[in-house]
## 1
Amino acid sequence: MNTRNSTLDPLDLYDVRSELSDDERMVQETVARFVDDAVIPLMREAFEQHTFPTELVPQVAELGLFGSSIDGYDCAGLNSVSYGLICQELERGDSGLRSFVSVQSSLVMYPIHAYGSDEQKDRWLPAMARGEAIGCFGLTEPHGGSDPGNMKTHAKRDGDDWVINGAKMWITNGSLADVALVWAMTDEGVKGFLVEKDTPGFTAQEIENKFSLRASVTSALFLDNVRVPDSSVLPGVTGLKGPLSCLTQARYGISWGVIGAAQACLNEVLTYAEDRVLFDRPISHTQTIQIRMADMARRITSAQLLSLRLGRMKDAGKMTPSQVSLAKWNNCRAAIDIARDARDILGGSGISAEYVPIRHMLNLESVITYEGTETVHQLVIGKELTGVNAFG
C-alpha cells in the first residue's frame, strides 16, 4: 500500500538538491547508482560476516572517489560539496565503506598532498587514487584518543634514519594498508611518518569481535624499533596542527556521510509504516508514527542545510574547525537518534538485518565516537562561546 502523494521528496524536504550545481548533481547521481547497484546488495552479508568487501575498491577508484578533492596526481579535483555528497551516498550504503574512503582520502592522501615532499606525492597519490595502494592513519593510542597531545609513540633520530616505538589503536584499514601514516612525538614536536607495511618491527593486528563497523577493517598497530629513512617524514608540518588538520577534513566528510545513514533509515520506516497494519489501519495513519517520522525529517533537513552551508564555506576558504565540530556533533546525534527510533518503529523486525536500521544504528555508535567524541565537539563550541578551554 502506498498512500504518499506529496510533491516533496520525503528525504529532501527543502529541495537541497536544487541548490547543487549540475556537476555536483551528476556526482551525487553517479555515486547513488553505484551504491544502489553494487554496495547495498553486499553490505548485509559483509556486516554479518565481519568482512570488508574488497571487491568494491576497484569500482570506487574507477569512479574517482579516492582523493576526489585533490587536483592532479590522477585525482578528480572535485569541490568540497561534491566530496560531501560522495560521503553521503556511500554512508547510505554503509558507514564502513564511507570510513574506508574517508581514511584513504582525508587522512592519508590529504596530508601527503598538503605536507608531503614531491617524491612522496608522486609515489603515493596516483597509486592511492587508482586503489592500487591503501593507506591508514595512526593517531589514536590504546590509552585514549581524545587527548592526542599525550602521545606515547615516539621517534628518535639515529643518523639519517628515525627509530619509532609505540602502538596505535582503532585504526581503520590498518591490516589492509600498504602504508601507515604514523604520528609520533619527536624532540622537535609531533611528526608524521610514512611506514610501509613490510618494514621490520611494524605489525598490524585486526581487531575482532566488533559489533559496530563490522564491514570495515579495524586494527591495532605496533611499532617495535621501526627504522625508517628521513625521506619517510612528512616535511611540511610539525606539531599537532598536522594530524588535527587531517581530522578537520575527515570530520567534514562525516557530517555529510551520516545524513545518508539517516536517510536510509527514514526510507525504510516510510515503507514499513505503510505496509504494517495494526488495529485495522497502517501504522503510518497514526499520529504517533507520523510525529516520529516528521521529527526524523526535521533532523535530516537541518543536517542537510548545515552541511551544505559548511561545504560552501569550505570551498570559499572560510570554514573553521569549530564550524566542522558543530556539524559533526549535530549531524551524528541526529543520525543515531533517527536510527534508534527507526529500529524501534520496526518493532521485532527492527532487530533483523533484513532491515537497515539496526546496522546503521550499530555503525553510528562508532561514528559518533571517532574523529572526536560528541563531548569533545561540544567543548570545542563551548570554548568558542566563552573563550575558556574546559578540556580536562
## 2
Amino acid sequence: MKKQLTDYEKKAWRMVILFLLAYTTVYIGKKTMSVCLSDMIADGVCDKLTGGTIGTCFLACYAAGQFINGWLGELIHPRYMICGGLFAAGMMNWFMSLCSVPVGFMIIWGVCGYACSMLWSPIIRAVSLWTSDEIGQTAGATFSATIPVGTIFCYVLCAAALNLATWRWAFRVCGTVLCVVAVILYISLGTLKTHMTSPETKKEKSADGKNGTVGVFCIGLVFAASAILFNGMIKDGLDYWIPTVLNDRFISDSSVVSLISTLLPIFNIFGVYFAKYIYSRFKMSELGTCGWMFLISASALGGALCFISLGVGGMAVGILVTVLLALSSAAMLGANSMLLTFIPLHFGKIGRASAVTGMLNCFSYAAAAVSGVAIGVISEHTSWETVFMIFVLAAALGGVLCVIGKGRLAVKIRELDSMK
C-alpha cells in the first residue's frame, strides 16, 4: 500500500522540486562561455589565452564565493540568496552579450561565477532544515543529477542560438531563461513561506543550545576536504579536456567529438544514483562509498591510459576510451554527491550545513581552477600519457584518503545524528 504523504512532506517535496529547477537552471548560465568560446575566438573578440583566463576568473570567483556564501547562507534566508544569485547570473550573461573588451569579459564572468555560487549552500541548508532525513537523501542524489541535465539544456539552447544567430544571442537566451526562472522561483517559494519558517525556529534553537558541546570541526572532515581536492581535479578536468583528448588521439572529426561530448553528461546521472544505491543498499558510510567511487574511477582511467599509451587511433578505440572516461567521470560525480550533499546534511543538526558544504565546494572548485590550467600546460609540454598518469594517481590518493578517514567521520556523523 502506497504511503500517504503528510502535509509537511508535500510542502517539503514542493520546495525540493523548486530547488531542482533552480540548480538545473544555474547550469544553463554556467556553461554558456565554454559553448560560445570557439565562436568568440572566430569573431576576434578574444583569443585562446584570454578565453582560458576568463574561465579561470569564473572558477576562482566561484570557489571564493562558495566559502563566503557558505557562511552567509547561515544568516540570510535561502529564498533571497537562491533567487538573487540566479537573477544576477542571468544579468551577467546578458552583459557578456554586450561586451567586446577582454578585460570586461573577465570581470563580468567572474561576477557571474560569484552569483552562481550563491545557490548550493542555501539549498543544502534548506533541505537540512525543512525536509525529513528520507526526503533529504533522495533529494541529495537528485540534486547532483541536475548538473548533467542543466548542461544538456545549455548545449541545446546555445546550439539553437548559434545556428540561428550569433554567440551574443546564445548569452542573451540563456540569461533570459535564468532571470525568468529566478522571478518564478521567488514567487513560488513565497507560497511556502510558512513551511520555510516554522520548522527552522525549532531546529535551529535546538542546534544553538548544543553548539557549545558539538562543534563543526573533526578530523574526518579534514579527510573529506582533502579527498574533494582530488575529486574536483578529476571531475572538472575530465569535463573540460575529454573533447580535446578524443580529437587529438582518436577521432579527427570535430562534429563527431561534439556529439559524443553532448552525450557524456547522461552517463554522469547513473554515477550519482549508483553511489546512492551502494550507500543505502550496503549501509556504507559516505566516505566509504566515495572510496569505491575513486576505485572505479582509477580503474577506468588506468584502462584509458593503456589505450592512449598504445598510440592506436580510430573510431572503435575512440569509442572504447570514451566509455572508460565516461565511467570515471560518472564515478567522480557519484563521489561528489556524497561529499557535497550527504555529508553536509548531517551538519544541519547544529545549523552548519550551509557552512560545511560551502567550505567543501570551495576546495573542489579551487582544485578545478588550478587543474584546468595545469593540465593544459602539462599536455602541451609533455604528453597525454603524463596527464592520465596524474589522473590515475589522483584517483588512487583520493580513495586512500576516504578509506583512512571514513571511520573518524562516521563517529562524528553518529554524534550529530543522535541529536534530536
## 3
Amino acid sequence: MKPTEIELRRVAIPLVAPFRTSFGTQHTRELGLVRVRTEQSEGWGELVTMTAPVYSSEYTDGALAVLRDHLIPMLARAAADKGGLDPWAVAPALAPVKGHRMAKAALETAVLDAWLRERSLSMAQWLGATRDKVAAGVSVGIMDSVPQLLDAVGGYLAEGYLRIKLKIEPGWDLEPVAAVRERFGDDVLLQVDANTAYTLADAPLLARLDPFDLLLIEQPLEEEDIRGHAELARRIKTPVCLDESIVSARSAADAIALGACAVVNIKPGRVGGYLEARRIHDVCAAHAVPVWCGGMLETGLGRAANVALAALPGFTLPGDTSASDRYYRTDITEPFVLKDGHLDVPHEPGLGRTPIPELLAAVTETSEWITL
C-alpha cells in the first residue's frame, strides 16, 4: 500500500454536558484526526489527546506538531524505502521517536483503516472479534452534589447501560459510592476511577470502599507507582485495575507479575495503537487477567475501532464504549446507538465508520494536507 498524502485536522465538538474528572472539566472535546490517502483508498485515525497534558504528557497541539514534523516524514521515508507500507511496518518506522504513543496510534490506525478497506476486511474480522455486539458501560463524572449524581446514574440505568463507573477524588469517594449503592442496590455493576488522585497513604480510606462490592478501583495511584499499586492491592479487597500505568504489553506483563493489578483497562491510544492493544489483550488472557476497553470521549471513528477491539474474547467486563449520544448531540459519523445495553460491532470494511462531510466541516478548526 502506497500512501500519497496525509491530512491533519483539528476539531472541536461540544459535549452534551460538562465532564469532570479529578484532573479537570471538559465542556468541548478538542481532538485531532488523521486521514491517510493511498493510491486505492483512504483511512482515518483519531488522536485522543486532550488539550492540556493532564491525563498524559501528550496534548493535542503538541501531538499534531509531532505528527507533522517527525512521524509523518518518518513514515514517508519508510514507505519510499520499502516501496509501500502495511500496518505492521508503522511502529518500527516510528520507533526512533520516543513516547508520543497517542500520536503514533492515530497514524497507525489511519494506515490500518486504509489497508483494511483495500482488502474489504473489517477491523473486527482482522482483530479476531468473537462477538457481534459488546456490553456497554458508562463513565459518570464528578458532580456538584450527590442528588445530581443519583439523577444522572438513574438516567443511565434507565437507558439500559450495564455498568456504572464513578469518577472519584479525595472528598468525593465514600459518600457518592454509598449513595449509589443505597439507591440502586447491590445488583448494579459498579466501579470507580481515581485517575491517579490518591497516594498509598490513602489505603485506609480506599479500604472503606471494600464493603460496596465494587468491580474494581481504577488507577488509584500515580501511573509510575507500580510498587505502590502492588502494596495497595495487598491492603484492600477491591480489585485494583491499571489504566495510565499500562503503556505496552511489556508494562502489562510486569504489572501482573508484581501483583499490581487484577484487571487491566486497555485504551488503544494510550498504548500506541490497536496492534499493541491486541498484544496486551493476549498477555492478559495468558495470565487469566480480565480486560475491558476504556474510552477517551471518542467520536464515532475511535468508538468504532474500540467496539471492534472490545469484541475480542478477553474483554469480559463492560467497557466505556457508550453510545454516541452519551457525549455528543451530533457525532461526526453515523452514531452508535444503545440496544438492550449493547453496541453493535461494525462489520463494514475498515473501521466501519467514516465522517459525514457536512458534520465534519461544522466542527473543523484547522486542516492541512501533507504530500508524501
